[in-house]
Amino acid sequence: MSGFLRFAARRLLEMAATLLGASFVVFGAMYLAPGNPASFLLSGRSASPEALRAINEQYHLDDPFLVRYLRWLGDVLRGDFGRSITYRTDVSRLLADRLPATLLLVAMALLLVVVIGLVLGRLGAVRGGTTDATILVTTALALGTPSFVAAVLLQGLFAVKLGWFPTSGSGDGPGDLLWHLTLPAIALALYLIGMLARVTRSAMLEALDGEHVTVARSRGVPEREVIRRHVLRNSLGTVLTTGGLIVSTLLVCTILVESAFGVGGLGQLLELSTTTKDFPTVQAISLIIVALFMTVNLVVDLLHPLVDPRVALGSGRNDA
Predict the structure, then answer these.
(1) What are 111-163's pLDDT values in tens digits?
(2) Over pLDDT 70: what percentage of the chain?
(3) Is 35 left (phi over 0), alpha (psi -120 to 50) or beta?
(4) What's the pLDDT score for residue 320?
(5) What CATH number does the domain containing 157 carry?
(6) 84-124, pLDDT tens digit by residue?
(7) 241 and 204 together in one domain
(8) Is residue 284 in some structural domain?
């Protein structure tokens, strides 16, 4: 356990250092764009010298870059991401209003991916034959359908033509929000269901060819127990690693899906803020997405040795 705690502490420190570097890049990216930051704040409008001076004072644009960064970083650590230029309100309030919809959408899509992907992968590996062939064709179609294409198709069929689901928006209240997020969650999950099903199938087929499975069967262990104890268990490491990639992909693709369905989440807010050059909001959302990415990778790294003891702590490889 002490080795695991040391590994966890080291990974946390690495994550903090990486997040610090990412914050510097996120903050500095604004100053790499063409033009002066003050022109972004003015949205292309002309302004008097007095107005420009007031903007420079308000946003400390006359201070050295490192001073501005350290001031911004200190504010971020206190939960203050600045004030939105477009919405004229605190960015923290915008994030608090938009984040729940995005997290719920990602959670719904992840649930669909895990349940359907694992079931399809298991059925394909265990049953084989026609079942396996059908699953391979189905998952190939899913893998060939990007999230934004799935969003357009689902919206056109089930929302516009059949009228079974809302076409856009987030609804009113928790129940209505779930109903509005159903189609976006399916569109977000479709491609990744195919990915997880293929990975699960391959990992289980590899485990089925293992010597320990042959020995268990020769001892008369029931097939269901063989699958559960020896095949699924030895496939979890690969599936878990793929799960980290899946969550990261969900965080990225949600931007496209939210825009297609008009979901009032972080993805749609990021798109609108980028279009209007609302850099305090863009910086905050970008930093949150990076932090979520790193948190997912940290969780996967910490769970991997626990799920598969053959993996050495911090090595990311099989010792056996």
Answers:
(1) 999 999 999 988 988 888 899 899 999 999 998 888 888 888 888 888 888 88
(2) 85
(3) left
(4) 37
(5) 1.10.3720.10
(6) 877 888 889 988 888 888 888 999 999 999 999 999 988 98
(7) yes
(8) yes
The distance of Cα 107 from the centroid of its chain, to the nearest Å, equals: 10
Residue 221 CA, chain-centre distance (Å), reads 40
Q: Which two tokens stand for residue 114?
A: 């895990």
Which of 46, 77, 108 is where one domain is finished? Answer: 77
Domain count, the chain: 2
Which domain, by its residues, includes 215? 91-307
Q: Which two tokens stand for residue 244?
A: 């980290």
258/99 Cα distance (integer angstroms): 12
Q: Give the range among 5-9, 49-53, 185-189, 279-283 with minimum mean pLDDT.
A: 49-53
| Chain center to CA of 116 | 18
Q: Is the pLDDT of residue 303 over 50?
A: yes
**Is 261 found in the same domain as 208?**
yes
Rounded alpha-carbon distances, angstroms, from residue 307 to 85, 240, 293, 315: 46, 8, 21, 15
**Rounded distance between C-alpha atoms, residue 84 and residue 255, angstroms:** 19
Determine contact, residues 97/218, Cβ cutoff 8 Å: no
Q: What's the one-letter identity of residue 288?
A: I
State whether the Cα torsion 33-62-287-269 is positive or negative: negative
Q: Tell me which of 52, 77, 102 is where a domain ends.
A: 77
